[in-house]
Design goal:
This protein is α+β, with helices and mostly antiparallel strands. It has 2 domains: about 5-35; about 40-180, no CATH class. It is built from 6 helices and 10 strands; from the N terminus they run αββαββαββββββααα. The protein has helices at about 5-35, 75-80, 100-105, 165-170, 175-180, 195-205, and strands at about 40-50, 55, 80, 90-95, 110, 115-120, 120-125, 130-135, 140, 155-160. The strands form 2 sheets. Strands 1, 2, 3, 4, 8, 9 and 10 form a 7-stranded mixed beta sheet that branches. The chain has a 3-stranded antiparallel beta sheet with strand order 5-6-7. It starts with a helix and ends with a helix. It binds zinc ion (ZN) (2 copies). The site of one zinc ion (ZN) has 8 residues, from loops.
Length: about 210
């Protein structure tokens, strides 16, 4: 190899190196700027009626403090899905895998296909009374193993109501999960946990995830 060819070779290696470095820097920079905090947090609405009466969920034990909102780690089943601030028709979902069964278990309820155990007792289907589920306007036979969808609306009703009465109960559910998805939730969930620069830096580096 001549002296000139060797020099050219070195130059080429240097150029390739610089281009590679700049590409990497640009990639990282763009990630850093456009990265959104990865955190599952969406909402759904529900109501439970027993013998025509809507359960009020008044006890404070039905509601979680902000600490229960977790982050990325699911350390406790209560983190997955819960209610906040004595608002008895809004579920805050923090895990894509959370089911209606998980939610009711966190309230110490058990919801089967033909029975419901509430804080007021066990209600089992019999000749007079049936357990009905209406999910997003459609009657369904089971909910406990269904994952909770974003902006789902669920009615659970035990009793002897007619279809018309059930529709009336369903229409009483406040449908405002979409609003909660837009809100900042200052007192609940996402409140008090800003995306810090160091968190952003760390997450920008983890591009294999
Ligand atoms: Zn929330
Ligand atoms: Zn929460």
């Amino acid at each position: 190899m001549t002296e000139t060819a060797k020099k050219l070779d070195n130059k080429l290696i240097a150029i390739v190196g610089v281009v590679f470095g700049l590409t990497l820097l640009l990639f990282f920079g763009l990630r850093f700027v456009f990265l959104q905090k990865y955190e599952v947090h969406y909402h759904a609405n529900f109501a439970v009626f027993v013998d025509g009466e809507r359960l009020p969920f008044e006890k404070f034990t039905f509601y979680e403090e902000v600490e229960a909102c977790g982050g990325n780690g699911i350390e406790s089943p209560k983190i997955r899905v819960h209610m906040h601030d004595q608002i008895n028709h809004v579920l805050h979902v923090h895990d894509n895998g959370a089911t209606w069964g998980h939610f009711f278990a966190n309230l110490s309820y058990v919801v089967g296909n033909d029975f419901i155990q509430t804080d007021e007792g066990l209600f089992v289907e019999n000749g007079e009374n049936t357990l009905t589920f209406i999910l997003n306007g459609e009657e369904t036979s089971t909910v406990y193993n269904k994952t909770i969808g974003n902006e789902d609306v669920l009615l659970i009703s035990y009793g002897s109501e007619s279809d018309e009465q059930l529709q009336d109960q369903y229409s009483q559910i406040q449908v405002d999960a979409a609003e909660y998805n837009e809100k900042d939730d200052p007192s609940a969930c996402s409140g008090g946990k800003p995306f810090t620069t160091s968190e952003r830096f760390k997450q920008a580096l983890q591009f294999w995830e």
